[in-house]
Structures are given as structure tokens and as C-alpha cells.
């Protein structure tokens, strides 16, 4: 009896439509990105019994489909769109349409086979949504504060009211995230462990738990690379290039960066490292100045300290 080849499915998600492609057989179709369309998609996927279904993170439009795949217990992985686009360029596929993208995602699934990740539980989804909203409010708060200096006197009162409202909403999100953590014994235990380290407050603790579930599972080097604070090699032959951070989880780096500045004053380990490294660093340690910037304004101290903060947290979490 001839063995049936493994099936891999790629799904390109847009606001209104799901484009689906299979490998190795070249089968394609599309459905609406709504309840009926997702149900039809699941029906056909159950018949195909794919080894893996891959889709890109598309700013939230994939949420309903991901939840449905998890409920149906179909193996899936949500990947970074940049990885798929780089794969497409490597295979010579430069044109881009939704149908073509679905085919490339299916080829990516077949060739790379990313590890399926389980859907986060309800508590993690809840706190992740709260923290995402907090980041949005902070961005609006920074923007409004920047407008005050150049604003016409007629609108400064309006800006002041809006700033007060944003600060109030940020406090409310902090209170809500604390309430979520305290309601879960497991999350509360991790929170107590994380905040026992000088320099780690409730915002960083909640961010690490929600956005970095691998903490305590991966080792120090792996977790630093995952977050994006590990300088990566750039060597070729006899040339030894400058190390830079790249990729990773920007939302963690941003919070980690600010927490590390505080920890450099109150945490003796990080404070000692800062003092020891405040002189000449050497070119191999050069990394971006700010956690959101890759390859620009190298300042090794401001990346090495967040990496130290993270790796020390990893050790404590594992222990």
C-alpha cells in the first residue's frame, strides 16, 4: 500500500478572506474570514489531516482562525511575516498576491516545519490584551506630552485633560493586570519570584509572564537571543564584524530597558557591571543604543545591562 505523503497547509489571512494552499499537492481555495468561512476551512482541513498548518501574524485578523484551529486540535504555527517574505525571496518568488502568499506559506511549512505552539490560556490572553492596551496608552501619552511645548495656548487645556485621562487609564490597566495575577496562584507565585529581584516591578513581571512563557525553560543564551538582546556574530573569513542585536520581541526589550536603568541604581550586581563597563568596551560588544533600534548608534552598555538583567532573571526562575 502506497504511503500517503505528509500534508502541509499555508493560510494567508486578510481582513475579509482566507487564502489556503496545500503541499505537496497543489490545491488552493479561499473562504471568507468569518464564522462560516472558518467552519468551512476546518471541515476541509480535517479531511486533509495536515501535519502542520502555518499562518502569519497579521495584527489580530488571525485571532478567530487560531482559536478555531486550537479547539479543533489541528497542529498549527503562527510565524513572523518577515520569515516568510525572506523565504519567498530566497526561492525567487518576488511577486506578491494573497493566493501566491498562501502557496509560499505552504512551501515554508513543508521546508522549515516551525514548531507548533499551543494557544495561550484565557489568563494569558487576558493579561496580554491588557498589557498591549497599556503600551498603546503610553504611546498616546508620549505623543500628547510632545505636543504641549509647541501647542497654541487655546488647546493646551485640552491636551492637559487628555494627558490626565491617559494617566488615569494607565493606572487602571496596571490595577487590572495586578488583579489578574493575584487571582491565579501559579501566576502569583511567579510574580513574587520575579519581583523579589531588585529592579523588577509589576509591569516588567507581568510582561515577562505574558510575553515570554519560555522563561525558565530555555537557558540564558537562548532566552537572550529570543528576546533580541544577544549580540549576533557577523564574521566572514578573516573579517570579524561588529556584533549587533537583531529581531526578538520588541515589547519585552522596551520594558526591560527601562527596568534595567532603575536596576542599575538599586541592584548591586547590575550596578557593579555598569561601573566596570563604563570605560572602553571594545568593538565586539557594540550593539544598538536603544532596544527598538537595530544596527544604529552602538552603545554596548545599554544592551549588555538588559541582557544581564534578563539572564539573571532566567537563572532565578529556573532555580
Structure in words:
The chain has three domains: 8-112, Ribonuclease H-like superfamily/Ribonuclease H (Nucleotidyltransferase, domain 5, 2-Layer Sandwich), CATH 3.30.420; 122-183; 220-318, no CATH class. The chain has helices spanning 35-48, 63-71, 81-90, 98-112, 122-148, 153-182, 185-195, 202-211, 220-227, 250-266, 268-276, 301-318; strands spanning 8-13, 17-23, 27-32, 52-56, 76-79, 235-236, 239-240. Strands 3-2-1-4-5 form a five-stranded mixed beta sheet. With 319 residues, the chain is of the alpha/beta class. The radius of gyration is 23 Å and the shape is globular. The termini are far apart.
Number of strands: 7
Query: Based on the structure given, which CATH architecture of the largest domain is correct?
Result: 2-Layer Sandwich
What strand line-up does the widest sheet have?
3-2-1-4-5
Cα-to-Cα separation, first versus last residue: 52 Å
CATH class of the largest domain: Alpha Beta
Could you describe the largest sheet, including whether it forms a barrel?
5 strands, mixed
**Poorly predicted regions:** 280-301
Kindly provide the radius of gyration, computed on alpha-carbon positions and rounded to a whole number of angstroms.
23 Å
Write a compact overview of the structure shown.
By secondary structure, the protein is α/β, with parallel strands linked by helices.
